User: Fold this.
Amino acid sequence: MNFVHTEKLDSEEASEFAAMSEVEAGIRDFVRNDVAYLRRPTPSIAGAEPVLQPGSEPVNNINSLIQRVAGTSLTEIENLINELENLRELLHTEGQRVLREISGYAQLSQAAMKSTRMIADNVNQWKRTTDGLRKG
Assistant:
């Protein structure tokens, strides 16, 4: 048996440990009560098949145990999948928005560079014109 000091665990680890202990206890009870008779030798007539106890349904019991144990986990996994799908959609939407923003900034930057060149060219032309007037 594994003994863990729960006072050293944080609350999440302690709840996980408690859940695991509960599952293990459920499995032990199931094996003791519902499956143990399968290990017991049953008196049989020579050559006859062993007879299961009346009213016992080991397959249904195993299925119900698995559903009880896995039910919470499956629900959590489904919730996680839904959250991840929502996150993926959000990231896709945000990626498209960022792409539009970058495209807008690139266009604005190109327009600013063209305007700056035009201004610089005009200033150079004015400078040449004023220099020509002073010399002439």
Q: What stands out?
A: The longest helix spans residues 58-135.
